[in-house]
Structure formats: C-alpha cells, structure tokens
C-alpha cells in the first residue's frame, strides 16, 4: 500500500544526529527506523547478523594468524602484509554494507 500521509516531527540537533547514527549503524533509512520505533516493531536491518558474526570470526582468525607470523622472516612479512590487506577489505565491506 503506498504511503501518502505525512506527519511532521521536530528534533533537536543532538537528537537528529543520534537518530541518524542509529539508522546508519543498522542500515535503514530514517522513515523505516521511525515507523518501526513508533509502532514497536523490530527494526529490519539490511545487514545479516549471522554474516556479520562470521566476518568477525574471520577477522579474529586473521589476527591470531598475524600474531603467530610476527616472527620477522621475509616470508612471514609477506604473509602478514597480505593478511592486513584482507582484514582491511573485510572492514571496508562491513562499513559499506
């Protein structure tokens, strides 16, 4: 059903910043967030929570490998650089949704 009715609500600067941060963090737009909050419905995030958990586990594994490889040989340095690149790409992918 198309949404044709509009209501106006006012926020302070601090309130709108806080709301916009929440919207960004959960990956929804302002209207989606407000409708869910007002109607007491769960917020449907565009991020798959299980996917985020899996990426975090991969990141943890990469950190553990990096610590083990921090021995100083040239091969270790090459592997460590590659792991850092992978970790940066994973962080970027999470940030971009």
Task: Provide a quick synopsis of the model.
The chain is 70% helix and 0% strand. It has 97 residues and is mainly alpha-helical. The protein folds into two domains: 1-46, no CATH class; 49-96.
**Main beta-sheet strand count, sense and barrel state:** none
Mean pLDDT: 81
Helical proportion, percent range: over 70%
Oligomer description: single chain
Q: Looking at the structure, what is the overall shape?
A: elongated
**SS-based structural class?**
mainly alpha
Radius of gyration: 20 Å
Number of domains: 2
Strand-residue proportion: under 5%
Total beta strands: 0
- The number of distinct helices, counting runs of at least 4 residues, comes to 4
Identify low-pLDDT runs. none
Q: Distance between the terminal alpha carbons, to the nearest Å?
A: 28 Å
What string gives the helices and strands in order? Answer: HHHH
SSE arrangement:
Blueprint: H1 13-26, H2 30-39, H3 49-69, H4 74-96
Helix pairs in contact: 3-4
């Amino acid at each position: 059903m198309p949404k044709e009715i509009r209501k106006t609500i006012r926020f302070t600067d601090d309130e709108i910043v806080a709301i916009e941060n929440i919207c960004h963090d959960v990956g929804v737009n302002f209207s989606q967030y407000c409708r869910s909050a007002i109607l007491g419905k769960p917020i449907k995030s565009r991020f798959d929570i299980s996917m985020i958990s899996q990426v975090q586990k991969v990141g943890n594994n990469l950190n553990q490998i990096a610590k083990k490889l921090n021995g100083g040989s040239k091969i270790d340095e090459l592997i460590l650089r590659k792991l850092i690149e992978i970790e940066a790409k994973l962080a970027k992918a999470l940030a971009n949704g």
